[in-house]
Specification:
alpha/beta; binds D-xylitol-5-phosphate; binds zinc ion
């Protein structure tokens, strides 16, 4: 399993120090991009990603919570994204999802799609073969520090079964309310990557990440 620590939970006056710790203990840096339109919050943009990617050796896991992901993906690629995940709900058709997956792949990086808590994973069926990652949102996107929605477990299991039955390659990533109490259950359901922000960044980061891996 992989741990993706969410930058959203960092203290921005201590950013270099905190990312230094994350770099030592976390597998990925999860970079939440919010446009104040697809979600009711604004986070950070590609310049911050560029500065971090230049100074740190971390896999940059970019989660676009924006209304027009096709417009933004090139600039996040230029800034150092290793994986770009966009939201199914931001797209107007399966064909537009497919076009964007191809565009991300043509840049030479990995492509993921995310679904919100109310979205049935079956909507992704025709796309699963071409995806590197499926991100199951286990809270409503927009804010850190919310409680894990337990219905997400069934969605993770469904995606894990489809993956095994068809020999697909996508990783299953889970984002929102993940902590040391629910990590085991989420991994047992079939998750490969745990995103965690407020749990990891509160207190001892190294010890918190170690508890997720247990
Ligand atoms: C929420 C973001 C999450 C968030 C998770 O919209 O996508 O990545 O940072 O934070 P916690 O772990 O606090 O739920
Ligand atoms: Zn996220």
């Amino acid at each position: 399993m992989l741990v993706a620590t969410s930058l959203l939970a960092c203290n921005f006056t201590k950013l270099a120090e905190q990312i230094n710790t994350i770099e030592k203990h976390s597998d990925w840096l999860h970079f939440d991009v919010m446009d104040g339109n697809f979600v009711p919050n604004i986070s950070f943009g590609s310049q911050i990603l560029k500065d971090i990617a230049e100074d740190f050796d971390l896999f940059m896991d970019v989660h676009l919570m924006v209304k027009d992901p096709a417009f933004f993906c090139e600039s996040f690629y230029q800034s150092g994204a290793d994986l770009i995940t966009f939201h199914y709900e931001a797209m107007d058709s399966i064909q537009s999802c497919r076009t964007l997956i191809d565009k991300i792949h043509s840049l030479g990086i990995k492509a993921g799609i995310s679904i919100k808590p109310a979205t049935d994973p079956a909507v992704l069926d025709q796309l699963l073969e071409s995806l590197d990652l499926v991100l199951v949102m286990s809270v409503e996107p927009g804010f850190g520090g919310q409680g894990f929605i337990r219905e997400s477990l069934a969605k993770i299991k469904t995606l894990a079964l489809r993956k095994a039955a068809n020999n697909y390659r996508y990783l299953i990533e889970v984002d929102g309310g993940v902590n040391d109490k629910n990590a085991h259950e989420i991994l047992s359901a079939g998750a490969d990557v745990l995103v965690s922000g407020s749990y990891i960044m509160k207190g001892d980061v190294e010890a918190n990440i170690a508890k997720l891996r247990k």
